[in-house]
Design brief:
Elements: H1 10-18, H2 21-32, H3 37-44, H4 48-60, E1 64-70, E2 75-80, H5 82-85, H6 88-101, E3 111-114, E4 117-120
Antiparallel strand pairs: 1-2, 3-4
Protein name: Helix-turn-helix transcriptional regulator
Organism: Goekera deserti
Pfam families: HxlR
Length: 153
């Protein structure tokens, strides 16, 4: 591999779209039900110009959609698309990691509500075939890794 190449993968492509701080905070706020520009700005602390750019980028990527709620003046709300809703487990996993490893971070515990009860929530990856929880040591690449050290002959 030459010095200018990089490993092509969906992680890199995803980070190009949502890997910037304000982008994921926008998704967080939409998940929490904050829909309007000013509310998102106040909840995230994002500068106006940066927030406007991030909202446009996320809309162009299909993560959120704008819905007009006022004609005069024209005003819009923002809503997660199905693709944006698929980012919620990513946020929950980041939150869980932060709660565990960054004790000074503000905590906003989420609960799973059903049948009149609330339960603690933990983000987990599981195998779609056997249902076992996934840990990093159990994973392998399904294709040869061009960056891996060759096995001794």
């Amino acid at each position: 591999m030459d010095a200018g190449s990089h490993r092509p993968c969906s992680v890199a492509a995803t980070l190009e779209t949502v890997g910037e701080r304000w982008s994921l905070l926008v998704v967080r706020e939409l998940f929490y039900g904050v829909r309007r520009f000013e509310g998102i700005r106040l909840a995230t602390g994002a500068p106006r110009n940066m927030l406007a750019v991030r909202l446009r980028t996320l809309e162009d990527a299909g993560v959120l959609e704008r819905r007009q709620y006022s004609q005069r003046p024209p005003r819009f709300e923002y809503h997660l698309t199905p693709a944006g809703q698929e980012l919620v487990p990513v946020l929950l996993t980041l939150q869980q990691w932060g709660d565990r490893h960054l004790p000074t971070a503000g905590r906003m515990p989420l609960r799973h509500r059903h049948e009149g009860h609330e339960h603690r929530l933990a983000a987990r990856l599981t195998c779609t075939t056997c249902g076992e929880e996934i840990v990093a040591d159990d994973l392998s690449l399904a294709v040869p890794d061009p960056w891996a050290t060759p096995a001794p002959a």
